Amino acid sequence: MTEPDIMAGLPAGVPGALAEHLASLPLVDNHVHGYTTAAMSRADFELALNEGSLDPVPAFMTQFDSQLGFALRRWCPVRLGLPAHTEADEYWRHRSALPLDEVAGAMLSGAGVERWIVDTGFASDQTASPTELARVSGTPSSEILRLEFLAERLLASGSTATSFADDFGNALRARGDAVVGFKTIAAYRTGFDIDWSRPGAAQLEAAVSAWIESGRRRLDDPVIISFIVHAAADLRMPVQFHVGFGDRDMDLHRSDPLLLLGLLRQPSMAGTPIVLLHCYPYHREAGYLAQAFDDVYFDVGLALHFVGSQSVQLVRESLELAPFAKILYSSDAYALPELHLLGSVLWRRAMAEALGGWVAAGEWSLPDAIRVAGMIGNGNSRRVYGV
Amino acid sequence: MTEPDIMAGLPAGVPGALAEHLASLPLVDNHVHGYTTAAMSRADFELALNEGSLDPVPAFMTQFDSQLGFALRRWCPVRLGLPAHTEADEYWRHRSALPLDEVAGAMLSGAGVERWIVDTGFASDQTASPTELARVSGTPSSEILRLEFLAERLLASGSTATSFADDFGNALRARGDAVVGFKTIAAYRTGFDIDWSRPGAAQLEAAVSAWIESGRRRLDDPVIISFIVHAAADLRMPVQFHVGFGDRDMDLHRSDPLLLLGLLRQPSMAGTPIVLLHCYPYHREAGYLAQAFDDVYFDVGLALHFVGSQSVQLVRESLELAPFAKILYSSDAYALPELHLLGSVLWRRAMAEALGGWVAAGEWSLPDAIRVAGMIGNGNSRRVYGV
Amino acid sequence: MTEPDIMAGLPAGVPGALAEHLASLPLVDNHVHGYTTAAMSRADFELALNEGSLDPVPAFMTQFDSQLGFALRRWCPVRLGLPAHTEADEYWRHRSALPLDEVAGAMLSGAGVERWIVDTGFASDQTASPTELARVSGTPSSEILRLEFLAERLLASGSTATSFADDFGNALRARGDAVVGFKTIAAYRTGFDIDWSRPGAAQLEAAVSAWIESGRRRLDDPVIISFIVHAAADLRMPVQFHVGFGDRDMDLHRSDPLLLLGLLRQPSMAGTPIVLLHCYPYHREAGYLAQAFDDVYFDVGLALHFVGSQSVQLVRESLELAPFAKILYSSDAYALPELHLLGSVLWRRAMAEALGGWVAAGEWSLPDAIRVAGMIGNGNSRRVYGV
């Protein structure tokens, strides 16, 4: 078997027309990274199956024994001509003997994506660029600019306390034409429980001055973080926020998106699409914000592949309070091209099972279900990012 | 089709006797508002489908594309002689051409409610009164008194720092005979993370004095809020708390009901039924409190209709830690008579699917399931409110 | 019927081989208490069905009307020769006429446990000892030492501000050979939002001195609590943490395990297994920590029997982010031998339904499902506790 039927095994009640629609729907992956282009050992590969940890996988276990590992063994071997549920060792042996381009091509083309929207702000020298993603997959790509990364580069290259505000605004505008949106990792740097009011000029100058004097490189000053978010929002292009599930350096509970209420309520934010990424385990809270604010969107991103067969419940929970025009698809795949595929496959199956069940119960009509699948799969992102 | 079979499409395993019981069970709707009596535009109607937002629905979307919108299109058109899943435009055209009394009568009578317990504390001049609700539905109504509203009226009409404590107590007792309970919206005014100890006389006097001097009308002083809650609790009538899901003016995370522990543990609260309303996404926490305190009750209120086909999962999650004698039904319908119907229909279906599944698995007996449906649907509220 | 088929009523898709494996799998119950050996009234029995409350069950209800009560009536009567779903009065009449040893033997032997790991730190004079548990069940037992209990005993018997650090370390080492791990109830004493850095000698001495002078017996000083946790962790034996669901004396929200991040990140913790117990409603957060830290494990403990038929959803939610090598089984049974049985039965059924559904959907292979059941049921605990 070289081509899986990705709708195999769904409950009997799922309407065929919905399953077929979801199996072939072109997706906009509104937040994704490149896969690692450097050589990887088996240990590197296993570590890439763990988002939270920073340590090697301990000897008593394998990271393949997880929802993500099982989903990978279910869906990825068949893209390489191996049977579903191939054992980890066998999969690794086969996969690591292939050229990376071949693996990446098989996985990325299998994702059925019409556009990759790529965050290039992390480890960009070791990961495939948007251009490379486009090449191996035959799918065009767009780019997202990470705000903290831009600010750090400006400060490292001579921006001063008095020039920083202008320098940052100019750099944003200069880069704005080349990207389709911005991203902030405030969740990692300060948490969301900061004062989100727009800093005054003097306040910002003092903060930048103090930060430069401190000699630090990692930008974690709340005044500067608030400034760069407001500056980006002024351009009315989408601003993505990392929310929830990430590595253990982050205080997860301080990334509850409800802590952004003080920012979202500010009139100056109106008109700027705010995209809350991942959100687990705060995806219900994200759905609330997407109802409460015209400009708030969200996705469940990498949680889809990390929870594997639990993605059905995750997708259902993401379909509660938010209007359907405010929910997006992303894989947030990183490091392994397998993850670019898995986000897509698991989302398609979970949507088919969730929506299909509601159609079978007579609660949704079939045309509505097909339409909503399209909105979340691509329509909303096309509108938000202009792609 | 003018009369829906509200149990259509449930899973095969749901016992017929349980479905029939739930289809016709008379409900006590323990927290509900009037529907809007003023003329509504299509835009007003759409906005009323959104609890969180305060802005018009943006042009790029319709609020009908949501779980609530789909549930409305599934269950409400059939009450007006239209097919299930009627398109939004067609529904609006038909519905808006009918007299409001006819629409309200069709929806409210379809809810199968034996008593409306009505919160009249919000926009009462633009919404149907308890008497009007009773008239159009043929169902008697009772009233709930909103504490902050009473306090604000007293202060606006000459109550002073020295007289307020007595004035409030007298007014409560004077109104107490006409109502079946009280309600606090402390969640909106202060959040629950305040000092809930009973204010001393001097402390209260100082707070009232400062508040009068401030010239504000909206009561948000934590000392005064704590006082009015304690004063109401002293009467041993039920006190309802808005908890969780509401509009974006509220800090949702500061309405986690666990933040009420400091209040609930006070010996002077014993004997006063405390009803936690709505609670989403903190309904599991509410269920915990309903187990931990003899006098705590809760419902999932408006979350039922807002999450639409996800109400099954919501109801299941509300049936975890709480003893079944501590769970109530409410619709928390507001503005649209459609919501008075939807709370009822979705609750009946969700209960049938949840309890029916457990009976089918042999985990619950059928008589127990029927009995628990009755406790939550009406028995517990009859006992708590004496109706 | 005297022997139930504990897999009766599962969905049709659950593979027989998985159900059979789970029906007979020997379990390590990694956190359990003794049942009460003193005479119990019906009122005592009902109160033991409520974890959160400290008051008698009110007259208007019975605690049997709960998920736990229904699960008990489903699974326990059949162990005593009565039909499933026997009414509460009838069950109590029959059960209370039997010798406790007979009831306990029937329940504990039905749990299919290969080892009890017993927390003897609470009410140990009124509950069955590890030896008694072993005797009535025919299953060996091991012991867990409660840290706060040990510290309190030392301080009550003459340990001083200057000797406490050494006294505690010596006592730990002296007891360490006889136990397989330690437990902290910091959740009850201080909450997790304390400074978890290791106290210096002078800081600890000052804290102990102040505490001795205060004349208190209940240890709730955050410096001393932090010290005893660090001291136990130094021995590299497992340290269990009470997390989440407990009685109302605890600030539940201050036991969110994410508040332990400051402790878990400390390099000196590496190599010490940390077991997060119960965790409800923060089990998703616990799963995150189990992914993020090599040494973090968790179970859902007493939540299994308290949520009864909702244990399927609970188990599914516990199988999201955590690698399968990091999830354990426990009953956390206390007071009633019925609970020793129910944890086991509900876990077996929930695992069969959850994993069986994923196998039926083709997402997991059957051998993987059988293997993971074994890891969680006994393999992981055998490794962590060396039993």
UniProtKB/TrEMBL annotation, chains A, B, C:
InterPro entries in UniProt: Amidohydro-rel (IPR006680), Metal_Hydrolase (IPR032466)
Pfam families given in the database record: Amidohydro_2
Domain Amidohydrolase-related: 228-386
GO molecular function: hydrolase activity
Protein's recorded name: Amidohydrolase-related domain-containing protein
Organism, as annotated: Compostimonas suwonensis
